[in-house]
Amino acid sequence: MKKIALFIILALVALMLPVTSGASEDIVLYLGSNTALVSGKEKAIDTDKSVIPVFKDATVYIPVRFIAESFGFTVNYSEETEQIDLESTDKKVVFRVGENEISVDGTSYNLNGKVSFVYQNRSYLPLRVFSEAIGKKVCYDKGLIIIGNEEKKADESGLDVLRNKLTGLEIIGSKENLLKKIPYVLDVDVDIEYSSAVGGGSGGGKSSATVQNSSAVPEVSADFSETNIQVKGVDEADIIKTDGNYIYSVQKGNVNIISINPASDMKLSSVIKSEENETPIELYADGDILTVIYSVYDKNTKRFYADNKIKCSIFDISDRTYPKVSHSYTTDGNYVSSRKIADNLYIITTAHIWKEKGEIKLPCIRDFNFEKEEKEINLNKCYFLPEKNYNSFVTVSSVNVTKPDKKVQSQSYLGNGQEIYMSSESLYISAQTGLKTNIYKFILDNGNVIYNTKATVPGTLVNQFSMDEFNGNFRIATTYRENGTLMNGMFIFDRAMIERGSVTEIAPTEQIYSVRFVGNKAYMVTFRNTDPLFVLDLGDIDNPKILGKLKIPGYSTYLHPVDENNILGFGMDADENGTLSGMKMALFDVSEVENPKQKFVEKIGERNTSSPLINNHKALLYMPGKNLLAFPVNEYNKHSTESRPVAKIYSFDIERGFDLRGEIHHIDEEDILKSGDNYYFPHREIERIIYANDSLFTISSKKIQSDKFEDLKFISDIEL
Fold it and tell me: Which residues pair with 384 in a beta bridge?
């Protein structure tokens, strides 16, 4: 156990806690819970259930009045000065809301940059500073907080007893307990027949990089585009990344590293070849670190639902010609999604529970730097989520990509997951069950993922953009059924995931096609025959409301904010009967929130025209500083048998709208001769467009091509 000096470091220290939950004069709390244990007895922290310990700015904060009064202090507050005085028989503590100092018996201490704040009309202070200021010891473990007179020690069962009392988060413990909670276990010997089409895989941790060039291109200052993400500071994996000097791409079942500086001399620096039955899905690139997420099929399993293994491999690419694996990790299951904040990568997977020859099989995990073989998850360290009718596990893994000597942290729960949303401090996992969706909230604490609480909403989500967090409040939009009729709703929850306000019965008979949150506003597109764009005001979390709407033909599947008054929509055009007639993008002016307008519109192709951008926001290249807007399109003309896979390159600004500068394609004369009457170019469909050093790079499954940004003239290409 490591002791940390008061007021110098506000780190949270994980300590062993008492086995007995009723230790004299102890106060036990949990992040996100309004219930506390005071001397072993359950007590509400406040009549307002939203008053809870909160995690903010990488620090745990606790409500001052409840803690102080529980330890015998009187609390006095001056509205005029916003000063709070805490007094007991032998101690006086004084502080002001919003300031970074606290006075203890006349001596002032700096809060190391942290400040007190007000939440739900209650004053909060940092956990460790406040507790030790009033002469108490602090113990903290995965969201569980004990404040008392002494430091205590105990086994892990003591922690779980306390955690369960405050959250209902129950340890699974054994397969017998597991079977009592789940509705059904798939039996591979009875329910299914093994398909030999399912391949096998090893999930190993070694690299098989093929050296193509003997030296790397010298590093120079670079100007380049980044992946289009949902939340600033929260990176998302993609099939393409660049650092301006190299492109890192998932192509043809391998990972390629291509030197692109200069664009006129592109070279394949190396190929990270996949092992047998292993397919790269997405990747991250950060300096000299490349992180690749693989799907691995296991030929030895009879699981018909093809629960893959997910492998995460971290490569040292300081020498781009010879990538070296520094760390690998595998877990049974299917990939839900991942996010990366600074050095910490978070991977979410789901895995079925199954039975073979009468034996329950659990997901297996292996950290290659620490374990020689994979092991089943330990049920003594797994929890039932509050909703217990799943027959699968959801696992959240945390990997520090810069520290191969640090063990991967993973936590499994009996549960499921479909979509995720991540802010800088919270992870939300959605899990549909019947006609409702459960939302599980987790706190992110520098690589630690701590279960917080749960909420439930009616209906289903369209995608990750249906969820958002702002000022600690969670907002979510869903499509649901009421008396057999489709309805849509917007729901707002506070930090405790208590529902505060909602707007329901929006656009009856229609369903949500896209959502985007921008500060206190939300934009929602529904569709049946026409496309209503709704503008909602979420500033008052107890009374959200619709401000205005615009009805136009077609629909948008992705909304992209330009600024506070303008938002881009990408989707499909349609006639008044709802018949689709091509792709469309539009700029909406929302400066008059009660009267949104379609300011500019661009129609692309005829019926059957499609684009990766319709379903994947990462296919958009938007650089407002360069007035650059680009995305791939598979364009059909009036004769629907003829399609052209191209990259559309536009100049765009909010005053002049869209100006098509040109198109880039990967089709050559030989492709056209081979195609016959029906154009078919499956390997020439452009998947991504990136910008680097005054050049545009277009990527298809077999080729990377560079063109000048200024005039779109061809520079060079490389076949892969």
Answer: 170, 414
In 149-266 the beta strands, taken as DSSP E runs, fall at: 170-171, 186-187, 209-211, 240-242, 246-251, 254-259
Question: What mean pLDDT comes out for the span 204-232?
Answer: 59
Give the Cα-Cα-Cα angle 502, 520, 468 (nearest 5 degrees).
70
Alpha-carbon separation of residue 34 from 63, 289, 310, 438, 670 (angstroms)? 11, 42, 37, 20, 69
3-state secondary structure of 67: helix
| CA dist 328 → 202, 288, 292, 325, 351 (Å) | 12, 16, 10, 7, 19
Q: Which of 490, 514, 494 is nearest to 504 (CA)?
A: 490
Q: Using alpha carbons, list the distances in angstroms from residue 335 to 312, 326, 570, 612.
A: 11, 22, 27, 20
Contact yes or no for 462/515 (Cβ under 8 A): yes
Distance CA 154, CA 660 (A): 68
**How many Å separate Cα 637 from the centre of its chain?**
38
**How distant is the alpha carbon of residue 489 from its chain centre?**
22
Give the containing element (helix H, strand E) for 180. helix 175-181
pLDDT of residue 563: 93
- What Cα–Cα distance (Å) separates residue 692 from each residue in 263, 605, 709? 9, 28, 9
The DSSP letter of residue 554 is S
| pLDDT 10s digits, 126-178 | 998 888 888 899 988 889 999 998 876 655 667 778 888 888 888 999 999 99
CA 679 centroid distance within chain: 38
d(CA 328, CA 292): 10
Amino acid residing at 394: V
* Closest by Cα among 272, 258, 314 to 291: 314
For residue 566, the surrounding DSSP H or E stretch is strand 566-574
How many of the other CB atoms lie within 10 Å of CB of 287? 9
Strand partners, 250: 255
Closest CA to 114 of 104, 106, 102, 131: 102
Residue 173 tokens read as 């413990």
Q: What is the pTM of this model?
A: 0.90
Lowest-confidence segment of 24-38, 153-167, 376-390 by average pLDDT:
153-167
Pairing of strands 383-384, 409-414: parallel
Residue entry with tokens 């007190």? 116
Q: Which pairs count as long-range contacts for 495-498, CB under 8 Å and 24+ apart, including other chains?
A: 495/32, 495/50, 495/52, 495/54, 495/119, 496/32, 496/33, 496/34, 496/49, 496/50, 496/51, 496/52, 496/453, 497/32, 497/439, 497/441, 497/452, 497/453, 497/454, 497/455, 498/49, 498/50, 498/455
Q: Which sign does the torsion angle of CA 192, 196, 198, 204 carry?
A: positive
Of the candidates 486, 492, 450, 445, the one whose C-alpha atom is nearest the C-alpha of residue 469 is 492
Question: Look-up: residue for tokens 């590293």?
Answer: 257
Q: Are strands 35-38 and 703-708 parallel, antiparallel or unpaired?
A: unpaired
* Longest alpha-carbon distance in the chain: 93
3-state class percentages of the chain: helix first, strand second, coil last, to nearest 5: 10, 50, 40
Residues 466, 489 contacting (CB under 8 angstroms): no
Residues 350, 392: contact at Cβ < 8 Å?
A: yes
Exposed, middle or buried, 344 (CB in 10 Å: 0-12/13-18/19+)? buried
Structure tokens at 31: 């992040």
Find the helix or strand (DSSP H, E) in which 334 lies. Answer: strand 334-341
Q: Which residue, among 212, 25, 6, 244, has the nearest Cα to 102 in the 3D structure?
A: 6
- Among 412-416, 551-555, 638-642, whose mean pLDDT is lowest? 638-642
CA 177, CA 172: separation in Å to the nearest integer? 6
Give residue 214's Cα distance to chain centre: 38
Q: Which amino acid is at 270?
A: S
Helix runs in 500-546, H state only: none
Q: Answer whether 622's CB lies under 8 Å from 229's CB.
A: no
Only one residue has tokens 């009064």, namely 69
